[in-house]
Specification:
119 residues; mainly alpha; 83% helix
Length: 119
Amino acid sequence: MSTIGIPGLILILILALVLFGPKKLPELGRAVGHTLKEFKNATKSLTSDDDDEEEEKEKRKQQTKEAPVAAVVTEKDAFDREKLEREIRERLERERIEKEIREKMEQERSQMEKEQQKA
């Protein structure tokens, strides 16, 4: 049984880029990460005893008391966050374009004023 070397990984990454495109790769990476995290949590809960679960619950309670900002992110929260990030990116892009248009209009206005002063 052989292992995948660096050339193999590069080939796989190039194929993934060609198949899915650069816009979908981050989304796929996040989905794979969430899936692996959920799988890990599911296998951990299957293998642990009741005592381990109780100890883990106590640890979580202590952590939430110490750091109430830390929260469990669900798929819906992740989707909402991605949607919000997308809207923010679109808004920033729109503002950048509007700024460029304003600058161009100001340049044209100043050129017209110069032409009128010459005439």
